[in-house]
Amino acid sequence: MLTRKEVIVTLAESITVDLPMTIEEQIVLETGSPIVWFTFPGAWHDIGSFHRADGTFTGFYANVITPVKIEENTWHTTDLYLDLWLSPSGDARLLDEDEFEEAVAQGCIDQPTAHRAREEAENLLDGARQGEWPPPIVKEWTLAQAQENTFV
After folding, report:
1. What pLDDT score was predicted for residue 1?
2. What is the Cα–Cα distance from 75 to 68, expressed in whole angstroms?
3. How many C-beta atoms surround the C-beta of residue 132 within 10 A?
4. Is residue 20 part of a domain?
5. DSSP letter for each residue of 13-67
6. CA 113, CA 31: separation in Å to the nearest integer?
7. What CATH code is carried by the domain that includes residue 75?
8. What is the pTM of this model?
């Protein structure tokens, strides 16, 4: 894990999944895939740089979450179901809206938090479509740099 004031970078070297994750009929994550995660203190999302098991970059994935609180070595946050996908070609799409709406309907997410989550997701989507998201540090960081544990 590397930490700067504005970002914490972690590397999941090889994840295990029951089934490959596909978006638009493309496998974007599979068992053995590495993910470089970017956590921004105070932000309502984190960002994963996704790769296939062979290291091929597949895109950027954002989880809409409550801001991470770190107490000693324990991280606290809540996943708010909405996710954003940005393909290498620049196509952006919002994911899991049905899960989000179900969680809201069942009272798992209160209305103020739901409103803030929706606002965050729309801001990310707009930023991606305008070429302003993800931030430069995420775009510039490579899997090799994360594996070497070095900042850009």
Report:
1. 55
2. 6
3. 11
4. yes
5. -S---SS-EEETTEEEE-TT--EEEEE-TT-SEEEEEEE-TT--EEEEEEEEEPP
6. 33
7. 2.40.380.10
8. 0.92
Q: Is the peptide bond before 134 cis (omega within 30 degrees of 0)?
A: yes
The two tokens of residue 12 are 């999941």
The reply to whether 150 falls in a domain is: no
Report the pLDDT value the prediction gives residue 105, as an integer from 0 to 100: 97
Separation CA 70–CA 85 (nearest Å): 26
Per-residue pLDDT at 145: 87
> Beta partners for 104?
none
Q: What is the pLDDT of residues 92-146, one digit of tens each?
A: 999 999 999 999 999 999 999 999 999 999 999 999 999 999 999 999 888 988 8
Mean pLDDT of the chain: 93
Residue with tokens 């070609």: 89
Q: Range of 108's domain?
A: 2-142
Count up the domains in the chain and report the number. Answer: 1
Query: What residues does 76 pair with on adjacent strands?
Result: 69
Residue 149 belongs to some domain of the structure: no
Residue 121 lies in a domain: yes
DSSP-derived secondary structure letter, 102: H
Rounded to 10 degrees, what is the CA torsion of 51, 44, 96, 111?
Answer: 170
